[in-house]
């Protein structure tokens, strides 16, 4: 209602509304009018409305009472309220440091349950029950023990260890293992919790820049737009992309045998005008509409061809609505306003045409040219979604080095990404083992340090390593001339591969087989025996463990000596104080310099990573020193 009023109001009324809504530091009895009431309600969420209409919220989002989309305002307010709920119950036992609850995901799963089970699950979610252990706090006659066994009654006991529920646990062993290994909050409060990185991802997408359109030397007949979305069912981790393509060719200029070969057409016959990820909320509908809006903002007044019925409906809504504020309840209101400015203020035509997606193409079809363009736009959008500036949430192409079992007794090192990751013992050992096997090979050294970007032609190292350059099939103009180059190293029967740029398009799906991925080259031992560097790796591991043990032993001895020195110093101080009490007129002599040894913290961080047992030993040493 406030948005509707502000849309119709003049500038003076808006300023007055913002001023009254921003004054929320008053008692509820002093609140007068809807503006102050809105400010009070926002204050319950920890929000504040400024004099310009912007909303100061605790999340990463930047909201505005008028210009932001209504669904974004509602989602953000719901998230803020769930954070408030989590904080209000965080003082209960087993609920301390409760993470924010993902209400939408929890309600989605709850709605799938049978109505007979929703009652019991709802009681668990609302914690609408009491255990015997809780009842015993106010009822002296109540026993704390379980009514089915002699153990103390608690939620953990009922779910994970009570004999009365053993039959249920036997049907869900994986769930029981999860509850035993993770925090007890999942047992006490069975809801879905929000990923702590979701808000950071949303902030990145909110400020994601829009692309600069490629200048054209010709005026095309039409623009072809399409969108693509990764993980569309996962609203928190999905991301959407779009692409705009055009061409100066006609249908008769295109080879008949290539009409359904979208990558070839994109590479040879079409121009990519713009390709990027969606700015703001990530979904396929917004991707489709954003591509159309950017194409119209070129102000060429040529048709936009799309396969989205939502885009067609959005254009119709804009053309039939003279006042933009009447569109504020619709989704993607910010994009609709941009279309409204083009059509009603700048008096530009915004023509749009609908074409069916994923249809077979025949040169005799009346809409054959639109089908070809739509297929090429779909290909460009998919390539953009997969390979262009992947968000931090994408982990499928993360750089890694793994030691894995391969085909029985064989061993392999999977290497992918631009350079080896750091921080894991096994990764550093693998790097050292590869260096040991290849000696002073220049190619391997540059590969491991990430300096080798592209090699023109080929070469051969001292150890027999050969490097070749090849270009995978299926690349197009989006990837650039050098991003598709690959360097392949050969050392006997062992193959190390480093891909520069992106993965191959023809191998999109990645499946795990025996711990390795199908589309990643592996160091293969053709003789059936482990490679020469594998024993060296374990030898290096033993040396590291021995060195770590010796350093810990020396550290313990040093700390014990310091403890003895501190004890002697305290004993001397007590003797001096006793002497002062017995002989008040005498001046005590200062303690010897030998007892003024400063305490120096051992360089624990400079040591190699320790095992859990070693770390526990170190913690016990620190505890004894503190005592």
Automatic annotation (TrEMBL):
Keywords: Coiled coil. Gene3D superfamilies: Ribonuclease H-like superfamily/Ribonuclease H (3.30.420.10). Transmembrane segments: none annotated. Residues 549-576 form a coiled coil. Residues 220-381 form the RNase H type-1 domain. InterPro entries: RNaseH-like_sf (IPR012337), RNaseH_domain (IPR002156), RNaseH_sf (IPR036397). GO terms for molecular function: nucleic acid binding; RNA-DNA hybrid ribonuclease activity. This is RNase H type-1 domain-containing protein. It comes from Cladocopium goreaui.
